């Protein structure tokens, strides 16, 4: 099946720990995005990547890091520097040359204990 | 600056009622794109529609219809004869597409509950 997978679905982290959220796609899309969703708020962009080995900061990149070593994969690391990491994280892809519809994964809910 | 406002935080309707979700946007650009996405309880956003700023024709897709009015900077979404499966959070979004990437600004969302 074509689509986007995110794992894990639920993630619990102790304060001070780094955690990595996985995002894999087989849609052959060039662009990939990470968004953060908090209750009652829209999605806010963390990082985006338009091509392998290149990525750019979004609006709320502080405390996060990413890599794009393969077209299919765009993992997000939530570092201990992120002061309020508890949120719902969504990965999305888009065919380059948009703006076009974005395709979203099922999300990862991160809770800091 | 870009901004998307969805003034209705939560709406509840009884099944088979019609419901309109409001979206008001702000942009200085003349070329832009508007979107609607649906987020069911499973969490995954689903694309519903894209409209560019040069196309003000209203669109109908089954029970869904969209009313784009540049004069009032609005892009409202109407569900006719609502069903329980329509219960979800709906996001309106705006992209100016003049930056180096397709930055999308999402509104805060409207949570729709359709009661059987």
Radius of gyration of chain A: 13 Å
Which sequence of SSEs, written as H and E, runs from N to C of chain B? EEEEEEEEEEEE
Give the overall form of chain B.
globular
Structural class of chain B: mainly beta
The rounded distance between the terminal residues' Cα atoms of chain B is: 41 Å
Mean pLDDT of chain B: 93
Instruction: Specify the number of helices of chain A.
Output: 0
What are the segments of chain A in which pLDDT stays under 50 over at least 5 consecutive residues? none
- Tell me the number of strands of chain A: 11
Largest sheet of chain B: 6 strands, mixed
Strand proportion of chain A, as a percent range, falls in over 45%
How many helices of chain B? The count is 0
State the assembly state of the protein chains.
heterodimer
Characterise the protein shown here:
The complex is a heterodimer of chains A (113) and B (116). Chain A has no helices and eleven strands. In chain A, strands 2, 4, 5, 6, 9, 10 and 11 form a seven-stranded mixed β-sheet that branches. A four-stranded antiparallel β-sheet of chain A has the order 1-3-8-7, with no helix packed on it. Chain A has 113 residues and is mostly beta strands. The relative contact order of chain A is 0.33. Chain A has strands at residues 4-7, 10-13, 19-25, 31-37, 43-51, 54-57, 64-66, 76-78, 87-94, 103-104, 108-112. Chain B is mainly beta and 116 residues long. In chain B, 0% of the residues lie in helices and 52% in strands. In chain B, strands 2, 5, 6, 10, 11 and 12 form a six-stranded mixed β-sheet that branches. Chain B has a four-stranded antiparallel β-sheet with strand order 3-9-8-7, with no helix packed on it. A two-stranded antiparallel sheet of chain B has the order 1-4. In chain B, strand 7 and strand 8 (64-69) form a beta hairpin. The relative contact order of chain B is 0.34. The mean pLDDT of chain B is 93. The chains are: A mainly beta (113), B mainly beta (116). The interface between A and B is medium-sized, with 25 and 26 residues.
